[in-house]
Amino acid sequence: MNFKEQRDNFRSKKVSAKEAVKDSINKINNDDLNIFINIFDSEAIKKAEFIDNNFDKFKDAPLAGVPIAHKDIFCTKGLPTTCGSKMLENFVPPYDSTVIKNCNEAGSVILGKTNMDEFAMGSSNETSYFGPVSNPWNSDLVPGGSSGGAAACVAAGITSISTGTDTGGSIRQPAALCGITGLKPTYGLVSRWGMIAFCSSMDQAGPFSKDAFGCAALLDAMSSYDSKDSTSTKRPDKNFENLLTKDFGSLKIGVIKDINSFGINSDVMGAYETSKTVLSGLGHELKEVDFSELSSGICSYYVIAPAECSSNLSRFDGVKYGYRASDQKDISKLYMETRSEAFGDEVKKRILIGTHVLSAGFYDAYYLQAQKVRRMIKNKFEDVFKNVDLVFMPTTLDQAFEKNRESNDPNRMYKEDLLTIPANLAGLPAISFPNGFKNNLPIGGQFVGNYFSEDLLLTTTHKIQEVSDWHKMTP
Amino acid sequence: MAQNDTLIKGWQPVIGLEVHVQLMTNTKLFSPAKNKFGEDANTLVDLIDMGLPGVLPVLNEGAMKQGIKFGLATSAKIAKTMIFDRKNYFYPDLPKGYQITQLHYPIVKEGVVEVNNKKIRIHQAHLEEDAGKSMHDKYDNKSVIDLNRSGVPLLEIVSEPDIRSAREAVDYLKKIHQIITYLDISDGNMSQGSMRCDANISIMKPDAEAYGTRAEIKNINSFKFVEKAINFEIKRQIKLLENGGTVEQETRLYDAVKDETRSMRTKEFANDYRYFPCPDLVPTNISNELIEEVRKGMDELPEEKEARFRSEYNLGDYEAQVLCAEKSTANFYEEVCKVTDPILSAKWIIGEVNALLNKHDVSLNQSNINSKNFSNLILKITDGTISGKIAKEVLEEMWEEGSDPIEIIKSKGLEQISDEGELETIAQAVIDNNSSQVEAYKSGKDKLFGFFVGQVMKETQGKANPGAVNEILKKLLSN
């Protein structure tokens, strides 16, 4: 069942919120994909009863009576929030993040928190302290990451919507690998308050759903100007769901010249070429754009993101909350043992890289240089958007891959983010949607749009989904 | 460049100060928690001050305005855009593992203050957050942390190395103290830590081309200790260099009990703070409109007040300067002047009141003297009810008890005797009882006149009007 059907069933009183929640909980209990880190079943039933008892108040809310799963990176008041780490295994925040608060107010019922790469660092969901998530299409494969649990949750039909975060592709890549739709909004559209920081200048929360419709409704709920987040943008509110019916006319869609040279798998390229025909068929004009700088984004990203993470993760020191190494008598040993015992290898690696690139003597060569590349990519996008409305490209280089591939070749995992990272560096919105199947596995394509063009991204995707069935496939 | 009178054993001390000033704002620099001193531990703490996962800072514009005020008062450049950076280091009372401060784009740059007719340049003043407080002596085998101070806004004022002696350093510090208290941006209370000072000290030969290696003394918390610590450090460096040693670039601590500085951390072990722009805060633009708004709301600065006191109350340079040294004193004086003679009041404040303040080492607003009881005292001198001598006694009584001078004069019967008939009777009796002195006086010992005045005063317990006594004695003794 997709989001719209589920919400319609609630609004028409065909299915109560409580029944919907119970159905989801049953599915969770039968799940062997390791999608959830914590399940809040009794709280969910209570909340569903409350919504049912206040039907009139909630019936017109954007997420009325719909069960939802949240990535375990959003602080939930009184409910554990682990960020996929041993460090926060027993951490219970005393406050709700803005995303959680907004989704609660929009009438959704939180079922639990989904598995993720530790502190959102990873592209396969294998760095989670709570074990890897399996891809619903084939349990030997990864669902992608870092929001792997959230994407798998929707793909497996446990919920029709879930939230994720995208710092270098962590929504779009798992959406592509799991065959669902996922949107990374413009930096600043969704508040970061209460979202545990990885790379503050790129982290952005966004929606997952099978289709653009569900993403639009969830984005309506999630996004709000928030005075608690200085990088939150004050802008006139758009209703993305209503805008889905708007006719944006014939668009100029940029396709990247020589994209073959980026090392994209031929099946993914095949789906990409097919989608281009669909776009032309819908009356859009394809324009080739020269964007050879795209591939340098990855180098910039893997300097800036670790730099910021090395600072953001300093607060996890065993002093105030979270894990604390036992029997330490000396403060520096307490720090060292706590952090050595409670952070996983990938997190440690990135903290080390980040610490190095910010060190005296290396800052100019790495951090400053990376910022220049970032600026270059941003400027390039600005140029590109003078001539086209959207840029279209594959989301990933490959389809879902086998577990344990990465540990042998970390560079390959970093390279996996090649096509998603540029939008994060520039702060631009991008959406990934299923655009093909091969070997009984989904393939994703993505649009990158200009700042605050989420309506255009969602509506264009919605129109494609009106004439295609990729988003309706289920494992 | 080097002034010879500041040389010590042929060495020129070169000093720069970093002054941390806690700003008086309602809330903290980046959180809505109250900014207040002296509350119970950990009662003024927001999620942000605890550095919980997921929290974000939001700049307090009040603190920004305080910074602008300071810039305007020191003829400095106010940043068009200021940027906050993260200074990364681990410490238990630094919950986030980094301090948000300003490195390359501070709110204030290139200011200047005048100290004893010498210009001392301010390199920059930047906004940053204070850390919490670690306490190691409260419990056995346990350290505890109070986060009330975590996130309190600080303005760090960094001077150029323009200071040449410990004395000058203190005068500069007093000037900064005067400016921040005049601007009402801080209470400047050093003992409570709302003003703290780090001193960078090096020595050089007057003809040397480059400064010597400097040592930094951290966290000196009184004017007196600033002078002592710097003097100790200068002597230490001279001794080192003259014995063929070298000064190490290091951080030192001043031990007030032993009156010495001790090495805390050498350069080798210095932190690499890995500064980078704080991604949670966007660069903040400061518009000309905002600067003008702040300028309009600014109180009179010390120099402006002194000039006004000279013209409005006919005070000399010295009197105006002393009365304006502290804003609270200047305000007190102006209040008193509303009803009293400005010259006489100035004389009493500068002389007697200041003497008492210095003796007891308190400030005016901590004492029992207020503008109302002090005005009454001056009025009683002016209308001849009491003499200056008696007034001193009354003032002491006011200081001790806080009572009103009118009450004191009444209950102790201290009114001055000005009645000529009464005084003449007393004076005649003195003359009659001291015939030998009268004879000596009349034969040319003029100095004995004071003796007769003293005797009359003794008889009247000092209450006789001195002017009237003089007149009467002159008249009676010339007979």
UniProtKB/TrEMBL annotation, chain A:
Pfam families: Amidase. It is an enzyme of class 6 (ligase). GO terms for molecular function: ATP binding; glutaminyl-tRNA synthase (glutamine-hydrolyzing) activity; transferase activity. The keyword Glycoprotein does not apply. Keywords: ATP-binding, Ligase, Nucleotide-binding, Protein biosynthesis, Transferase. The active site is at 71 (charge relay system), 146 (charge relay system), 170 (acyl-ester intermediate). Residues 20-458 form the Amidase domain. One of its GO terms (cellular component) is glutamyl-tRNA(Gln) amidotransferase complex. GO terms for biological process: translation. It catalyses: L-glutamyl-tRNA(Gln) + L-glutamine + ATP + H2O = L-glutaminyl-tRNA(Gln) + L-glutamate + ADP + phosphate + H(+). Gene3D superfamilies: Amidase signature (AS) domain (3.90.1300.10). Its EC number is 6.3.5.7. It comes from the Bacteria. The keyword Cytoplasm does not apply. Heterotrimer of A, B and C subunits. Allows the formation of correctly charged Gln-tRNA(Gln) through the transamidation of misacylated Glu-tRNA(Gln) in organisms which lack glutaminyl-tRNA synthetase. The reaction takes place in the presence of glutamine and ATP through an activated gamma-phospho-Glu-tRNA(Gln). Belongs to the amidase family. GatA subfamily. This is Glutamyl-tRNA(Gln) amidotransferase subunit A. It comes from SAR86 cluster bacterium. The gene is gatA.
